[in-house]
Amino acid sequence: MNQNTILKPLAIALLLGVVPLTMTSTAAxxxxxxxxxxxxxxxxxxxxxxxxxxxxxxxxxxxxxxxxxxxxxxxxxxxxxxxxxxxxxxxxxxxxxxxxIxxxxxxxxxxxDxxxxxxxxxxxxxSGGTGSSFSYSMTCGAGTEACKVGTVGPGGGWxxxxxxxxxxxxxxY
Length: 173
Prior knowledge:
Blueprint: H1 3-16, H2 26-33, E1 139-140, E2 145-146
Antiparallel strand pairs: 1-2
């Protein structure tokens, strides 16, 4: 086996990173693989061989400059309407308002006095008394009714006081 047969695959394996690189001499490697005997003298150089396979890709190059901005895209369709929010709690009831009292209305006008009724007939004369004092009983209306507060007296006026118990002896009729 010649050295090119051993070294070419080894060099490709080292480039691809399949075999770790160690520092060993070519002769030591050849001796380790070839156990046949010592190699003879090198012959004359042969013709150039065919081009080998393409090597692995190189490291990634630097990022190129940013290109111009593209045209603005069309506006998207509007999104769906969201669900309605929850109804809020009712507010507190306000305090009751003050009770109003309306103003007192004006007093109405006093009505006109009614007509005076006719005078009743004169009553019978009383019996003659004996003594220095006398009693007089007044009648109202048709002459048979005693005068009372609120009735029309024999003189045509309204009765507003009657001294039934003679509490005012100086006030005689």
